[in-house]
Amino acid sequence: MAILAECPKCHKKQAVKNRNCDCGADLVKEKRLKKVRYWVVYRLANGKQRKEFVGNDREGRPLGIEEARAAEGKRRAQKVENPTILERVPAEKMTFAELAEWYQDLNPVKKLSSFNRIKQGIANFNREFGERIVSTLKPMDLEGYQGKREEDGRAPATVDMEISLVKTMITKAFDNDLVDGRTVKAFRVVKRKLRKAANARHRTLTIDEFMKLVDVAPVHLKAFLTLAFNTGMRTGELRGLKWSHIDREHGVIRLPADLTKESKTKVIPINHHVKRVLADLPRAIHHDFVLTYKNEPIVTPGGLKNSFITACGKAGIPYGRGETTGITFHDLRRTVKTNMLSAGVDKVYRDTILGHSLHGMDVHYMSPSEEDLHRAMGIYVAWIDAQIKSVAHIVAQVNESS
Q1: Confidence of residue 45 (pLDDT cuts 50, 70, 90)
Q2: What are the tens digits of pLDDT across the range 204-228?
Q3: Cross-strand bridge partners of residue 231
Q4: 81/103 same-domain check
Q5: What's the farthest any 2 CA atoms get from each other in the chain?
Q6: At residue 197, does pLDDT exceed 60?
Q7: Which residues constitute the domain of residue 144?
Q8: Which residues have CB under 8 Å from 112's CB, separation 6+?
Q9: Which of 87, 116, 139 is the last residue before a domain boundary?
Q10: pLDDT one-digit tens code per residue, 351-387
């Protein structure tokens, strides 16, 4: 165990005997002014290190070295009497950084397909509140954070997402008796910045636009576009798609629950467009991913962005939410479901193939078989092929007349 002093200038935590910080701050003077915060550092029974802020006095100033020594002594006694008690930090002492460490180490959380997004959202929040004691957060603090993030140029939807990710963490901690109702209350009463469905998009791609994109796209992007347009899979599902998910015998893609947003398994019939793409793709020796760039998996969510933007430019199609008629890669998923409707595919099959939840009694009474899904995909691909043929015929006529 040890006591560390936090420099009020650069926030570096260091030995209490230091008279000067590396940043040049006079720690002796800062201690005299009661600006130095003290932390007790110790190891848990499982070997992990934990830091606890000693606390503030009634005037909001950090407690002094004597109180820090008393806190350290208390933890030493607890470690001797019952080592496991140190694994439960009371709400009055736990910081958001400590809570995030606990939450992100949970196996169910680590297995989520959105884990990287969760980590980033909580990290953004913790840049502001990481060293804050969880139970001291007030609604006005969250409202201030929302305003600051908007001033930084973040969209209201992004700000709401960050608050929502942290709220989920807080709720999980509350259910496990790690935090009390004071923190839950702060997140419950704070209002969203974006009105529900206010940023809903309606843009879909025409067959002509899709064909133009495929025509100018590089090889790796062409494979992504074709699979997206014929299956409705999300970008994350496409990036995480592995050869072990391809069931060639039954002609389907079987996505595991940990790869889908809904955390449910999904079965997607393979039509002849997808089958042709899969047959042409090389299979790497050192990994099992299907869609790659230069034979390596695309790890980051934005890994396709630059290629997609370039392809949009070459095809003469506006890109981005900021453009009136701009498109995003996710618009392909909306396009697939819209096209399925135009082709006459029943709603239950549309929802099942795309992984959308069934509602009402359909949840209990609708259970489409793989044969049903294949028939639905047959209807869809027949419609797509007819549309492609029609567009190609029109283009040929235009070229002949010119």
Answers
A1: low
A2: 889 999 999 999 999 999 999 999 9
A3: none
A4: no
A5: 92
A6: no
A7: 89-200
A8: 118, 258, 263
A9: 87
A10: 899 887 777 767 666 788 999 999 999 999 999 999 9
Residues 117 and 63 in one domain: no
Give how far the C-alpha of residue 165 lies from the chain's centroid of Cα atoms, to the nearest Å.
Answer: 9
Q: Of the residues 185, 200, 215, which one is the last residue of a structural domain?
A: 200
pTM for this prediction: 0.60
Q: Specify the length of the chain in residues.
A: 402
Here the tokens at position 207 are: 């067959």
Structural domains counted in the chain: 3
Tell me how far apart the alpha carbons of residues 328 and 330 are, in angstroms, rounded to a whole number: 5
% of the chain at pLDDT higher than 90 = 33
Are 193 and 307 found together in one domain? no
Q: Is residue 288 within 8 Å of 244, Cβ to Cβ?
A: yes
DSSP for residue 5: E
Round the average pLDDT of the chain to a whole number and report it: 85
Q: Is 280 found in the same domain as 306?
A: yes
Phi and psi at residue 286, in whole multiples of 5°?
A: -95, 0
The reply to whether 119 and 228 lie within a common domain is: no
* Section 247-269 average pLDDT: 89
Cα dist from 274 to 9, 127, 223, 372, 374, whole Å: 58, 44, 9, 18, 13
Range 381-388, long-range pairs (CB < 8 A, 24+ positions): 381/230, 381/271, 381/272, 381/273, 382/343, 383/339, 383/342, 383/343, 383/344, 384/207, 384/230, 384/273, 384/339, 384/343, 387/207, 388/207, 388/211
Structure token pair of residue 198: 């206010």
Cβ count within 10 A of residue 313: 12
29 and 112: one domain?
no
**Residue 402's pLDDT is what?**
56
Question: Alpha-carbon Rg of the chain, whole angstroms?
Answer: 27
